[in-house]
Amino acid sequence: MGQVANLRRVAMLTRLVGCCLKSTSAIGNRAQDSILPHKPTQSPVSGTMYLGGATKMAGRPLPRRTILRGLGASLTLPFLDAMLPPMRAAVKPVHRFQAFYTPNGMAMEYWTPKGEGLNFELAPVMEPLAPFKDKLLIFSGIKASWNYIHAGASGSFLTGTPRGGHNEIEIIADVSIDQMLGQHFANETQLATLEICMDMPANAGACTGNLSCAYLDTLCWRSPTQPLPMDWNPRTVFEKLFGDSGSTDRAARERRLHQHKSILDSVNEKLGDLKRELGPNDQGKVDEYTDAVRDVERRIQMAEKQSNIELPRLDQPLGAPPVFEDHLALMMDLKLLALQSDLTRVVSFMISKEQSPRPYPQIGVPEAHHPLSHHNNIPELVEKMSKINRYHAELFSKYLAKLAATPDGDGSLLDHMTILYGAGISNSNGHSGENLPQMLVGGGSGTWKGGRHLKFTDKPSQANLLMTIMDKMAYPVEKVGGSTGKLPIDTLSGV
User: Fold this and answer.
1) pLDDT at 124 over 90
2) With contact defined as beta carbons under 8 Å apart, do 313 and 69 qualify?
3) Residue 310 and residue 69: Cα distance in Å, rounded?
């Protein structure tokens, strides 16, 4: 086969798999939980407990997927004590992970706490987080694994990569920990990971230091050469969770499932035909498509198992609201719903991307964020920068309050989460990678202790923190990016 014909086949496959991924991104992602932990005793049709009349359990635990129905509406219950098996030890709660990224560095003198260990005071930027002080594990002294203008900031935040590309077409990092954890939970949730942000991506080209815009547009990397897009439109996030027909109706989901299976069969057949006619190098490239198709197939199989589950009736958003706070609130609610219903256990979020020019006149900062971050260490401008940093913390605090108010097993969603919060740059004036402003937030399902400020004098790599997060998530790995070991967050004297 000639080269032109090969290219045509690859282009055809790209369109097919793209169509498949787009149309199946919602497959399996709108059901309300993973595989049921035990067979339901009251619902021979759907495998879900429905309460609406005089139905009772007579001493048996409620299924995890209990749904209240009545007057044409349905509502999925959160985790209740009645869902625990009687006379048994409590079920171990699910441990979830989230990244919450803030761009353009930090006004460090307004971020760094006074004191260390258990005895510390929150600095002005973190004062809005005071209600959750006992769930903050704040770090000082951590060094960026890859520090190159803005590309290294977001490019290494979850990958720990020690290097990147050298031009706009060379795109290199490392697999990010959210994707590792997504694989870890792949058989337990229908959506392995959720990647969302607040900014539209750049179409192509160079964005920072002559490097690809991909480094700014995402935190998430499926492979060292495959950055993943992040959804900025709440409508597409809704579709990923609940389908693309504007309805969570069961019949509509079943029709989509049949359609997607037909597309998948066609793509699999063409993948096999194509690989037989390509050389070894091209076959390696096609393998990336194959991995994507397998993930689609897995989600379809899980959706088939739960095709009879009734879902809450939800309205599909029309798009991104024009007001920043309204847009953010909608994205926060979608994240909360995805975590509460266990559609996913891994979420990555950027409140803005690096080099974001967003102004904040609503807090008295009409200047564009990125230009302001190059403040030449002028005190008045640094103070304005700190107002943006503090505002981000305030918005984050509102999200934490919702997590804390959402029951989950023997505690709350916040109790059973590990959230990595912070930036990939410290002093933004010189794009500094020293002393990164980062912390862990949540209860960590009891795997780490909050209410502490840890100072490191040996400048450990941020990649070592990522190693520790993987360990605390019960998925230890040998290496993350350029890591040299785990960050000792449990063994420092006196803390």
Assistant:
1) yes
2) no
3) 9
Is residue 33 situated within a structural domain?
Answer: no
Residue in this structure with the two tokens 């959750």, named with its chain if needed: 132
The rounded distance, in Å, linking the Cα atoms of 91 and 74 is 26
Strands (E), 329-475: 346-350, 359-360, 365-368, 407-408, 411-412, 417-422, 438-441, 452-455
User: Is position 73 within any domain?
Assistant: no
Domain that holds residue 349: 93-246+316-472
Window from 206-210, 259-263, 387-391 with minimum mean pLDDT: 259-263
- C-alpha–C-alpha distance, residues 61 and 432, integer Å: 54
Q: What is the pLDDT of residues 49-61, one digit of tens each?
A: 434 333 334 445 5
What dihedral do alpha carbons 31, 292, 418, 470 form, nearest 10°? 140
Q: Does an H or E element contain 5, and which?
A: helix 3-24
Report pLDDT digits (tens) over 369-388: 999 999 999 999 999 999 99
Identify the CATH number of the domain in which residue 384 sits.
3.40.720
In whole angstroms, give the CA distance from residue 114 to residue 133: 14
Residue with tokens 């502490």: 452
Query: Which residues lie closer than 8 Å to 280 by C-beta, 6 or more apart?
Result: none
Please state the length of the chain: 495
CA 447 to chain CA centroid, Å, is: 20
Q: Which of 26, 95, 39, 23 is nearest to 302 (CA)?
A: 26
d(CA 270, CA 32): 33
57 domain residue, yes or no = no
Give yes or no for a contact between 30 and 241, defined as CB atoms under 8 angstroms apart: yes
Centroid of chain to Cα 328: 15
Report phi then psi at 236, rounded to 5. -70, -30
Q: How many Å apart are CA 147 and CA 425, to the nearest integer?
A: 8
Q: What is the DSSP letter of 479?
A: -
Q: Is 48 among the domain residues?
A: no
Question: Over 70: is that where the pLDDT of 198 sits?
Answer: yes
- What integer best gives the mean pLDDT of the chain? 79
Number of domains, the chain? 1
What SS3 class is residue 45?
A: coil
DSSP 321-351: -SSHHHHHHHHHHHHHHHHHTTS-SEEEEES
- Rounded-to-integer distance, Cα 318 and Cα 303, Å: 25
Which residue has tokens 């989509």?
A: 256
d(CA 40, CA 232): 38
- Amino acid symbol at 268: N
